[in-house]
Write a structure and sequence with these properties.
heterodimer; A: alpha+beta; Alpha-Beta Plaits; 4-stranded mixed β-sheet; 3-stranded antiparallel β-sheet; B: mainly alpha; Fumarate Reductase Cytochrome B subunit; 11 helices; elongated; binds protoporphyrin IX containing FE; binds iron/sulfur cluster
């Protein structure tokens, strides 16, 4: 806690301060913590932050990817060129963000459009990863909206992968822990915007409060509409409570054309059932079975072999007369 | 069919198995399980208990502390599926030894209909039974089915080796199925252990491998009659 606390960043373009600043948020600001029911209510509400990715401004240079690798010091292995632009071929535990390229022929204009989307964690307000996680504190959500993985608490089960509607988390084969974009929580805590936003040469990526970013998006959408993109719009999907990474899309009516961006993402009903009903009903049924047996064991009468049973067995073995075998269909 | 066989040959079909034998008393004892079968059963039982504990640790945060038994969360995640493989192998060795004796018969229907008498301990009102009663058969087939479901779904969600083998949606179904099947097998396990305890004299079948003649007479008389009828009576030890 050295010296003055850092301001909450409102932009990614400011330069870092020259003196050390104390983090402006931390464990005391948790809104949710995985597998934890008794989380104390946060004492203050941080301003919600957001990263806005304007797909229409992206030139596909991948400076953001490089900045991400650099800041997070992930050193992805050099891959193999298979003739596509994506590099690497998918998100990995060492690549938290990935430019995805798709070639789309607009049926209205017959123009080929090159759609480039920066994929990565959306920082959902209702994060499916956190809901699915069985390890206390392995996934946390701060009141500013950042969803972060606390690797020390992660057990590597892969449940977050099943919980996420965007197919984001990746489990490292080296240390068996889950990795994804942190929204540069460590930078934001000291007043800096995310590394990708800072690096983007066209300001396709901007960062600030969610309110400011939503307003800025509206300006961009108005501009796009005036230039013929009638369906331009903001991607801030309500199915997951909105996201703290948002897109400006020129064809917001068809998110799927942007390398499979989900149309209406929500936590899968399978995951809801698994983490909801199954747990309540399951624990009740198992508890009932255990307590019922215990009660019957204590208060019920045990089924004991009688002296007569033993004598009958002896007679049978010695060939002395015993009660005869009965017919299988005794009248009931 | 049973009736016919019995009229030609007075030995009833009590599903006796080759290694089952009677030792003349007093007290009369009956061999029910051989030493390797018992060892294998204890491997099955231990792995099922360890699977239940390690699985429940991930099932609900209230039981996450159980990961401490396995050396932490990472180790629990690592060990659970391997213990599952041990369970699968040991159970299916057992399965191939016992499945014939667990095939359903007509008396099973009567047993189920008179479940009230079973629970009240009025065995004199029930038909004579072979080596297994309908309740034991239910446990046998229930465990069989659930272990198959658990190993199949368990492999699909075994992230370390099969994490990318199937689409995420398949894994979502698998994890849901796995947790429901786990709840069911734990209930069957409780029923199994409780029945063995409530029916006094049963546990020795799994410790010493033998039961008393009276136990066999009371609970599995057809089986006892078959063993005696086959004259597989050894002198008392
Ligand atoms: C038969 C082979 C089995 C395999 C291969 C298997 C595999 C798995 C895997 C991979 C997981 C995810 C956590 C992890 O990676 O460790 C898991 C979870 C679990 N397993 Fe198993 N398992 C098996 C049998 C069982 C059995 C017999 C039980 C119950 C006694 C059981 C109960 C559970 C439970 C309760 C969970 C947590 C589910 C949840 O989080 O909702 N498993 N199992
Ligand atoms: S892999 Fe880690 S972060 Fe993901 S659900 Fe499991 S414990 Fe939680
Ligand atoms: S996008 Fe996936 S990983 Fe990111 S917060 Fe949402 S559910 Fe979690
Ligand atoms: S740095 Fe900006 S322009 Fe370059 S790929 Fe990333 S988002 Fe696009």
């Amino acid at each position: 806690m050295s010296g003055t606390m850092a301001e909450q960043p409102r932009t990614a373009v400011s330069n870092p301060p020259v003196r050390a600043l104390a983090a402006n948020f931390g464990p005391q600001d948790l809104l949710r913590r995985s597998a934890t029911s008794s989380l104390p209510a946060p004492q203050r509400q941080l301003t919600a932050v957001a990263k806005l990715i304007d797909v229409s401004k992206c030139i596909g240079c991948k400076a953001c990817q490089s900045a991400c690798v650099e800041w997070n010091d992930t050193n992805p292995a050099i891959g193999v060129n298979t003739g596509v632009y994506e590099n690497p071929h998918d998100l990995t535990e060492d690549m938290f963000t990935l430019m995805r390229f798709s070639e789309w022929v607009n049926p209205e204009t017959n123009n080929l459009e090159w759609l480039i989307r920066k994929d990565g964690c959306m920082h959902c307000a209702d994060p499916g990863c956190l809901k699915a996680c069985p390890a206390p504190g392995a996934i946390v959500q701060y009141t500013n909206g950042i969803v972060d993985f606390i690797h020390d608490n992660c057990i590597g089960c892969g449940y977050c992968v099943k919980g996420c509607p965007f197919n984001i988390p990746r489990i490292s084969r080296a240390d068996h822990r889950a990795y994804k974009c942190t929204l540069c929580s460590d930078r934001v805590a000291v007043g800096q915007g995310p590394a990708c936003a800072k690096a983007c040469p066209t300001q396709a990526i901007v960062f600030g409060t969610k309110e400011d970013m939503t307003r800025h998006a509206q300006e961009r959408i108005t501009d796009l509409k005036s230039r013929g993109f009638a369906n331009a719009g903001l991607y801030d999907p309500p199915g997951v409570g909105g996201t703290h990474v948002m897109y400006v899309l020129h064809h917001a009516d068809q998110p799927g054309i942007y390398s499979g961006l989900p149309e209406n993402p929500r936590i899968s009903p399978l995951v809801e059932t698994w983490k909801g009903m199954t747990k309540y009903v399951g624990l009740a049924v198992m508890g009932f079975a255990a307590v019922g047996s215990l009660m019957h064991g204590i208060f019920g009468r045990a089924n004991r072999v009688s002296r007569e049973d033993e004598e009958n067995a002896e007679k049978l073995v010695e060939g002395r007369p015993v009660p005869p075998p009965d017919s299988e269909e005794r009248p009931g | 069919m049973n009736q016919n066989r019995m009229s030609q040959n007075t030995i009833p079909d009590g599903s006796a198995q080759p290694s089952d034998a009677v030792h003349s008393g007093p007290p009369v004892t009956v061999n029910r399980y051989g030493p390797l079968q018992r060892l294998n059963h204890w491997i099955t039982a231990t792995s099922l208990i360890l699977l239940a504990l390690s699985g429940l640790a991930l099932f609900t945060p209230a039981l996450f502390f159980l990961t401490g038994l396995f050396g932490g969360g990472q180790n629990t995640r690592l060990l659970h599926p391997w213990i599952g493989v041990v369970l699968f192998v040991s159970f299916f060795i057992f399965f191939f030894q016992l499945w014939r004796a667990n095939l359903p018969e007509r008396t099973d229907v009567v047993w189920v209909k008179r479940i009230g008498d079973v629970v009240a301990g009025h065995e004199e009102r029930l038909p004579e039974l072979g080596k297994y009663n309908a309740g034991q058969k239910f446990i046998f087939w229930g465990m069989t089915g659930l272990i198959l479901v658990l190993i199949a779904s368990g492999i699909l969600i075994w992230d370390q080796y099969f994490g990318e083998a199937t689409p995420i949606d398949v894994r979502r179904v698998a994890v849901l199925v796995h947790s429901i099947a786990a709840v069911l097998i734990i209930c069957i396990f409780i029923l199994h252990v409780y029945a063995a305890f409530w029916t006094r004299g049963t546990l020795s079948a799994m410790t010493r491998g033998t039961v008393t003649g009276g136990w066999a007479w009371r609970h599995h008389r057809k089986w006892l009659r078959q063993l005696v009828g086959r004259r597989r009576i050894d002198p008392a030890k």
